[in-house]
Design brief:
The chain is of the alpha+beta class. It has helices at 4-10, 28-40, 59-72, 91-109, 121-134, 138-141, 164-174, 190-205, 209-232, 255-270, 375-381; strands at residues 19-23, 44-51, 76-80, 114-116, 147-150, 153-156, 237-239, 242-246, 282-285, 288-293, 296-301, 313-315, 321-323, 326-331, 341-349, 354-356, 365-366, 372-373, 394-397, 400-404, 408-409, 417-424.
């Protein structure tokens, strides 16, 4: 017996005074969900359907849903995915994005509280096996959560504890019409092969297979929460557009957990799911990279660090200017402004002409003891890896290097020198 009222109670979700949207395909699973939710009598029930137009008979799904919604006077929203927009590769992922974009639009328009999908226990177990086969990433294996925040709504999957067979039995009992997607019978994708040839054999081994899948989901969710609490305690900073972590912050982490932390940070800051593989001190994946250098780990989005050739350019005192990806300013007095972060000071003649530009071969830095040193030595001493060096602001006064961001600031002084302050207009420290 399918009891959705128990699901809502167990998850502390009110449904009687809520607006609910069901994402329906016209298949047996979604038709069962639509009917079950209708019987719970929420404040408002809306049905949404995207015709992907991937099959010649997809119009039949629309007919079934239209007839049901007309019978029970339910608001029905439908659109089609134009065939000319179908990509030649990656069609499943693209279809998913189009579908959720449509659901978001309808949910916003109808002031929806919960968006429901008809994922069931078999879907959950297939997902666990699929992700285990592809990556073994526990985050991906536990992606079908019963309840999670999505955009400004709750995404709810109330059927995860029920099997496909139970839903078909419900459809038969209630005499519900539905459309069978014939592509589900094909073995051209890995999920279908698992569904047809692997899961049935596992079910024969253990009748509690789907129950075990839900247990795995719950326990993994608990472990993931504990892991996130651990990750939140780790200090890092935004450094020249990268995420920088001291190696000592991750002391005691094995390689797998360290890479999980890198993925966590990328997800947190860039909203992208990236899974790095093991046994690499530096690696790039899906446009994101990490590297280790002299006691630090650096995480960054690769396309932000494509070096642009920067000609020497004059700059004015107390006037913002741009260098590579950031905005800066040189001031002749200390400023108190919450939008400014002081990142350095240096001394030079009061009547100096200031410019910014790239370091050229053969240039040297003047030290306070009268000696000179190559810039690359100071970069290394300050743990600045080679890919970041072109993005450090370099300030010249009368063609002499006076300041290199995070690396060097001239402290030589005589009576004719004045103190200057360097400010960043956007860099922020994060804990």
């Amino acid at each position: 017996m399918i009891n959705l009222e128990k699901f809502f109670n167990d998850n502390n979700l009110d449904y009687k005074d809520k607006n609910i949207l069901v994402a329906a395909s016209g298949g047996p699973d979604s038709m069962a969900l639509v009917d079950l939710i209708r019987k719970l009598n929420p404040r408002k029930l809306v049905i949404a359907h995207l015709d992907h137009q991937l099959r010649a008979d997809s119009y039949l799904e629309s007919e079934v849903l239209t007839a049901y919604c007309q019978k029970y006077k339910l608001p029905f929203f439908e659109t089609k995915w134009d065939k000319k927009d179908h990509p030649s590769t990656g069609i499943e992922e693209k279809a998913r994005k189009v579908r959720y974009s449509f659901l978001k639009k309808v949910a916003s328009q109808e002031q929806i509280d919960y968006v429901l999908t008809a994922h069931h226990g078999d879907d959950l177990f297939e997902t666990i096996l699929l992700k285990l086969t592809r990556s073994g990433d526990p985050r991906e294996m536990s992606s079908l959560k019963p309840v999670r925040l999505w955009e400004n709504f709750l995404l709810v999957r109330p059927l995860l504890t029920y099997s496909k067979e139970q839903l078909l039995e419900y459809d038969k009992k209630e005499k519900l019409e539905f459309i069978n997607d014939q592509t589900n019978a094909e073995d051209n994708i890995i999920r279908n092969r698992l569904r047809h040839h692997v899961v049935p054999k596992l079910k024969n081994e253990n009748k509690l297979l789907l129950k075990n899948g839900n247990r795995f989901l719950k326990e993994m969710a608990t472990l993931m929460k504990e892991r996130e609490l651990l990750f939140r305690k780790i200090k890092y900073e935004i450094f020249l557009g990268t995420l920088r972590i001291k190696e000592e912050e991750l002391a005691g982490f094995d390689e797998s957990l360290r890479l999980d932390y890198f993925s966590y940070l990328i997800k947190k800051h860039f909203g992208k799911q990236v899974s790095f593989s093991e046994r690499n001190s530096a690696q790039t994946k899906n446009g994101y990279s990490y590297t280790a250098y002299r006691g630090y780990y650096y995480l960054y989005k690769e396309d932000k660090f494509v070096k642009k050739k920067m000609s020497r350019a004059k700059v004015l005192i107390n006037t913002p200017f741009k260098w590579q990806n950031n905005m800066y300013m040189i001031a002749n007095q200390e400023l108190k402004d919450k939008n400014l972060e002081k990142i350095g000071v240096f001394f030079t003649a009061a009547d100096s002409n200031f410019s910014i530009g790239e370091l050229m071969p053969g240039m040297r830095l003047n030290l306070a003891n009268g000696q000179k040193v190559k810039p690359k030595k100071k970069f290394a001493e300050n743990s600045i890896p080679s890919f970041l060096r072109p993005f450090c602001l370099v300030i010249f006064a009368n063609n002499q290097i006076k300041y290199i961001q995070n690396v060097y600031q001239n402290q030589n002084y005589d009576k004719s020198y004045k103190k200057y302050y360097v400010y960043s207009l956007k860099n922020k420290l994060i804990n």
